[in-house]
Amino acid sequence: MSPRSLHLAFVTQRYGLDVAGGSESLARAVAERLAIGDRVTVLTTCARDYVTWRNELPAGTETLNGVEVLRFACEAERDLAAFNAFAEPLYGRAASDEEEQEFLRRQGPYVPALAEHLATHADEYDAVLFFTYLYYPTWAGLRAAAARSILVPTAHDEPALRLRVFREVFDLPRAFAFCSVPEEALVRARFPVGDRPTRVTGIGIETPERPDVDAFRQRHGLGASRYALYAGRIDAGKGCAEMLDFYGRYRAEVTDPVGLVLIGRTAMPVPEAPGVRYLGFVSEEEKHAAMAGAQVVLCSSPFESLSIVLLEGWALGTPALVNAHSPVLKDHCLRSNAGLYYENAEEFGAALDLLVTAPALGPVLAENGRRYVAEYYRWPVVLERYRALIAAVAPAEVPSRGR
User: Fold this and answer.
1) Which of left, alpha, beta for 171 (phi over 0: left; psi -120 to 50: alpha)?
2) What pLDDT, in 10s, does the model give residues 110-127?
3) Number of domain units in the chain
4) 346-356 pLDDT, tens digit each
5) How would you classify residue 350: left for phi > 0, otherwise alpha for psi between -120 and 50, otherwise beta?
6) How far is residue 257's CA from residue 273's CA, in Å, rounded to a whole number?
7) In a domain, 402, yes or no
């Protein structure tokens, strides 16, 4: 007898084919693949932009790549500067319950209607998967539908994780899906996970076998030049300002420096500096060609729970240089032997120079990276981990449902 089809809910702060973001990309990738055999409903907001949570998409239901998407309007936009001015003092002192509730509301996206939907319809879903611990929809949604819940925290060591309000977020789920071993260790050190079901699920990595590197170089006037690549949101919070400073020092100290190519959306000014090229937001095809043509993929964020970019670069055979202050990125490098890591400007410059000037090093790291991704980050393996968690929280039998 074949397994019965399930109805799964995914809760995430943003969702769409053009929505970029680590947890959002993870949620969409898993949702689309599970929707091949099960019914998946994504509960999300009308926002495209995580800075303001402005309602840009229509409320209601649509279908994207086989996934039913139910959008709720945000009741308030966010003024990021005002939010930061409110939130930053809370990180350094004991905040009251009222202040922490206000933190959640101001941080947003504030969508009480999403939580009300879950409270009313929770029994219609065999499992409810919440992506990212940090935002209001997860906190309010877990309070409404904890009984069959799985939390995918995408957590890293940041000030907000220390707020008391998030104890409830980690107390309520029935099961947890972690992106990496260090993330699970961090959560277990902070919260009483106990013997609830857990898996380090990760994400499946899919890249083309032969990206058209020559066409990419020609389109962007790169010729045969060597370059290091940063791909992702260009944001000081992602370590980009520090990375650009370190790159400037490296360039001043070596005789034949590589260029630095940046791709992605900007959340900070990109300086006009020698060797730095900003190509803007590019397609997935362009991104993969950029990665395959680079000497090094740079991952500068000190706060990561997985890093899809790092794994994609390795799948394409490109070594990495990562910020050692991220336990996840450093752990990836130690487990794979496919990249180097830096703690300061001197280490950044020395490691980057070594990666681009040692001819025997690159092929070894490239092969190690490919092997690591193939072993741990293939979709069949990842989906089985998710299905095991879903089976642990879903009811054994439910009345038949229409689709």
Assistant:
1) alpha
2) 999 999 999 999 999 999
3) 2
4) 999 999 999 99
5) alpha
6) 13
7) no
